[in-house]
Amino acid sequence: MASPTSLFQDVITCDLCDNPTQKFCNDCQENLCLDCVSKHVEKYSSLTHNIVSYKNKEIQMVFPECEVHPNQRCEAYCQSCDVPVCIKCFLSNHKGHDAVELSNVVANKKEIIKKETKKLETVIIPKFQESEVNIRSKASKCSAKFDEIERETTKQRQFWHNEVDDFFDKLDPLIKSKKVEYMTILETHQRELTSLIPKMKKAVEKNKQILKTNRVSEVTDYKSKTEYLNICTDCPVDIRIPFLKTNTVMGKELSVELGEYRATLTQVLHSGLTDEFYFSLRELLDKPRVITTTYTGIKPLWRVVCVGADEAWISGEDPNIRRVDIHGSIKDSIETTCTEFPDDIVVTRQGYLMYGDAKNRSLNIVRDGKAEVMATISKDWTPRGLCRTRSGGILINLHNGKQNKIVHYLENKVKEEIFKDNNGKDIFKNGDDMLLLTENNNGDICVSDLYANTVIVLDNARIIRFQYDGTPAKKEKPFVPTKTVTDSMSHIIIADYNNNCLHILDENGQFQRCVDNCGLDKPCGLSIDSKGRLWAGMAYSGEVKVIQYME
User: Fold this and answer.
1) Is-contact 516 492, C-beta < 8 A?
2) Which alpha helices (H) appear in 213-258, and where do they start and end?
3) 211: how many CB neighbours lie within 10 A of its CB?
4) Which string of DSSP letters, residue by residue, matches 379-441?
5) CATH, domain range 284-550
6) 3-state secondary structure of 297
7) What is the largest distance, in Å, between two alpha-carbon atoms of the chain?
8) What does the alpha-carbon distance between residue 356 and residue 303 come to, in Å, rounded to a whole number?
9) Which of 222, 315, 497, 511 could form an SS bridge with 472, CB 3.0 to 4.6 Å?
């Protein structure tokens, strides 16, 4: 037996009240009880109403009431005016207009609604749901990452406090011990002088008596004491009190120095990082895909440097450097000062193109479409690989025909030279080939040593963090690294000229995957655009492939 609730739910109620339905208006398609029939007819008095018992109802379209002619329903649609109309409308203000049956318009609209509903259910909503899941995942990762950063900063805060406390804990007893040491010396010397003064006064009295005496023996027996006393006074105690040096530049540097003890806290602002993150929430695609292949006509093609999202500077064995868009159209061409061709190109933080000219031993910059020499390298060295640093400086590989070194220029001054390790041994293999450089988000310098067929990564102290020789990728041919770049995730991406692929490592040198499904052929130039896509230049075909490798 059905419960009272289920019986109540089966009752069909009147559309105007809660009483059970007994009647039905076929014209208006409304459920009515006996009490509401008259209300319904009065409410729509201008229209006809076919009132029948509920069991005799007929399902049909409910055409709208004409707003111009009472007692008329609109069963047609004026295509000229884009409004529903009744028969009287066509005999008056819509006379001669194109019209169709309103039922056909409804049927067509329902078909459109059906298709849109299906698209919403099968395509759009699932896509939004997937995006929502991805965003939720990224939000979780973002929160976890910032939690990790907060924990690390708290840890570092305590560490720095401990370091400062440790410094001053060493400084305080040093000051106290020096004070005791120096005061002991001074007080001892003071006591010695204090004890001598009465003796000297007594000697003065005795000398005065000798001066008055007539006894020869007292005069001849006199022994002078002034020489000894002069020694006491002519040899002062040398007390060198250490000078306490402090330097406080609010917001920039704090330093304290006492003797050989020194502590400095410096804040460095990298103005070039205003639009960049140190980490990203993007993930590597399982199957990278080629967005487009651009035919540049430059053969061979050695260097690619992206400008924004859809353009890049490219160079090869030609004195000219060209800027092309993603479709291969040449947007600009720079006539360089090179006798042969630029060894490497880079775009500065201000957006200027720079290139190295090994033949003329010069570093050049392009302003207003004209190339000018920015610096000339000494005759023993030639500039080869270039890299812009996050601090706004330039890393230059200098080569003397045998040895390679890296020079860091900042504000036209040499900040550091890199070529020896802590044991005094050469970091880079001696040979004819150049170094190709890039800097990672954490300040590491990633060096592609072409002669050694190895990528070397140096930390901020310029100590070797790790080296990569391509072994984890398990490729058949020997590893030949050319250009290396880093991305917003701090991945290190290496073009492998010999195996026609790209190696992707994390910032700690752990192999992630190979990009070997994009039809690469002797990849040499490599850059990343502002959308995070790879632009890979093929050395001998002159092609540039734009690759989506992260989502």
Assistant:
1) no
2) 216-220, 226-234
3) 8
4) TT-EEEEEEE-TTS-EEEEEE-SS-EEEEEEETTEEEEEE-B-TTS-BSS--SS--EEEEE-T
5) 2.120.10.30
6) coil
7) 168
8) 12
9) 511
Give how far Cα 379 sits from Cα of 188, 383, 398, 426, Å. Answer: 65, 11, 11, 21
What average pLDDT does the segment 53-62 reach?
A: 85
Phi, then psi, of 467 in degrees rounded to 5: -130, 150
- pLDDT tens for 239-256 read 666 666 666 555 555 677
Q: Are 493 and 481 in contact (CB under 8 A)?
A: no
Show the CA angle centred on residue 228, arms to residues 226 and 230, nearest 5°. 65
The total of other beta-carbon atoms located within 10 Å of residue 459's CB is 14
d(CA 283, CA 134): 11
Q: How far apart are CA 374 and CA 36, in angstroms?
A: 93
* Closest CA relative to residue 342, chosen from 356, 331, 354: 356
Tokens of 312: 């890049």
State phi, psi for 458 to the nearest 5 degrees. Answer: -110, 140
Contact indicator for 321, 298 with CB cutoff of 8 Å: no
Query: 201-209: long-range contacts at Cβ-Cβ below 8 A with a sequence spacing of 24 or more?
Result: none
Contact 502, 534 (CB under 8 A): yes
Question: What ranges in 213-262 are assigned the alpha helix state H?
Answer: 216-220, 226-234
Residues 147-186: pLDDT tens digits? Answer: 887 887 788 788 778 877 877 787 788 788 888 888 888 8
3-state secondary structure of 491: coil
Q: What is the mean pLDDT of residues 262-267?
A: 64
* Nearest alpha-carbon partner for 499 in 483, 475, 528, 519: 475
* Long-range contacts of 471-475, Cβ-Cβ distance < 8 Å, separation of 24 or more: 472/511, 473/499, 473/501, 473/503, 473/511, 473/514, 475/499, 475/501, 475/514
383: preceding bond cis by omega (within 30 degrees): no
Give dist(CA 461, CA 414) in Å, integer.
16
CA distances from 294 to 322, 536, 538, 543, 545 (A): 14, 10, 10, 6, 6
In the chain, where the domains are located: 10-91, 127-267, 284-550
How far apart are the C-alpha atoms of 388 and 395, rounded to whole Å? 6
pTM of the model as a whole: 0.58
Contact status, residue 500 vs residue 523, Cβ threshold 8 Å = yes
pLDDT at 460: 86
Distance CA 88, CA 218 (A): 162
